[in-house]
Amino acid sequence: MGDVVSIDGPAGAGKSSTAKEVAKELGFLYIDTGAMYRSVTLAAIRNNIDINKDDEITQLASDLDIGFKRIDGEYHTYLNGEDVSKEIRSSQVADLVSPVSAIQGVRNVLVEQQRQMAEDNNLVMEGRDIGTNVFPDAKYKFYLTADVAVRARRRMQDYQQNGQDLTEEDIIEEIKKRDKIDSSRKFAPLKKPRGAYVIDTTNLDFNEQVKIIVNRVKDKSGKFNLKQI
Question: Which of 75, 82, 87, 120 is 20 to 30 A from 35 (CA-CA)?
Answer without folding.
Answer: 120
